[in-house]
Amino acid sequence: MMPKLSRTQRLGTVIGISTCFFLAELSVGFYTHSLALVADAFHYLNDLVGFVIALIAIRVSASADSPKALSFGWQRAQLLGAFFNGVLLLTLGISIFLQSIERFISLQRVEDPKLMFILGCVGLGLNIISVLFLHGMMGALVHVIGDAANNLGVMAAALVIWLAHYDGRYYADPAASMGISVMILLSSIPIVRRAGLILLESAPNGVDLGDVKHDLEKIPGVLAIHELHIWRLNQHKSLASVHVVISDHSVSHFLKLAKIINECFHAYGIHSATLQPEVAAITIESTDIEVEIESRSLRRRSLSKCQIICGTLCEELTCCG
Question: What residue numbers bound the domain in which 250 lies?
């Protein structure tokens, strides 16, 4: 029966396995002149970095302390690590792909296909062990499954070079390495894209700022909405800030209004919003429906700019300046 291990212990064990196998596979790859082994080894290095980042993230999240300069704490640490990991993976994928093309042009003999096959089998076995240790940790599990597919590619190339007897058998090595590089690129591009968009403080998927602004302006008591910003802090948390123009001067009225506004944000999956009230004494008294609609339209256009002006010095330093 497998002893019960914590997430930290499981990740630590997998990091140890990955480090040993990375060094072994890289050494054998250079010894046998197998680009497929070298490519798989660097893919392991990327996963190793990912596991280390995951381990650090777990330990940091367990600690409540963070530097005072980090007002949001370490909540973007894992995201930053994922972006770095994705960029590293993307660079390695491009490099290996170009080297594979070079090997197709200038074919190189693989010295010991038996050793190459054995190392591929060992790598597959270690990946199966890693899957058992990382059961339930889906993000890391996907990495390990991808590595297992790469091991199968290395084993297939080794068998072709080992058992076939025609000169073209050595093309199996750059072919396998090219396949591995394509898998690396396919896995790295979504990582870089997702992490990059969050670091650029984009709105959550499926949230349209125009729809949010429209819903907020439909709330009774809200005259206009401007300076609406919605962004993702990390993979799970979304934040918002907005300037709300109201006509009622009382604090109690705004508190009731703020509750409704927050409920509107909650419907979009945003559970932390900063509201800045701006008071504008504008009244409309008209019995004609068309005149009232036109007046409201003109009123909202006039209130679309911030009512609290800090001066010309601030214009270029604001978030939208």
Answer: 209-317
